[in-house]
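Progress report, Aim 2. The chain analyzed during this reporting quarter is listed below.
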Amino acid sequence: MNNEIALKTASYLLDIKAVKLNIETPFTWASGLKSPIYCDNRVTLSYHIIRTYIRESFVNIILDKFGSVDMIAGVATGGIPQGILVAQNLGVPFSYVRASAKSHGLTNKIEGIVHEGQSAVVIEDLVSTGKSSLNAVKALRDKGCNIKGMLAIFTYGLDIAKENFEKANCPLFTLTNYDILIKKALEEDYINSNDLQSLIKWRENPAEWGKNL
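Predicted structure tokens for the chain:
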């Protein structure tokens, strides 16, 4: 991870409130997990400068880490707009992967044209446990795609996610992460030192952190 990009991305996310931090009234994830942080990277799409910065950063990472690719794939729904911007910049085809196959029509799980043997990089907006992101990777591999890796704007950096990506043999590169973001939040007075300690404890053990509320 490039430290300069990580810090600038974190600052952008905080400035536009794409990331919200609330220790006293934590957010509840779909899994039921209590979290002091909520990240909505779709907000970045409303800001031309930030949207462009993310696109250019993604493109530079792809060229540096993977070289040429045949296709960009997005993970529905947050990875779709980001992926389209990257694919347009690189001049390559784009497809996206649904969370589950449609129950009607063609019952597609993958939308767009995918050919066996195509090399692809998958774009995601954020990574928590990695389960849904890697579900998309598996769907593309099942179609014969050569997945070079995945890019995301943000990751919580949870141990389970690291394990899941390693098991799936899928390199993950992100623009910024949880540790950098909360340090940047302290530096820019979004939080105080007491908040920082609680946020660090959540990162160390999210399940236990929520039990103390």
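The longest helix spans residues 48-65. The chain has a mean pLDDT of 93. These observations will guide the mutagenesis work planned for the next reporting period.
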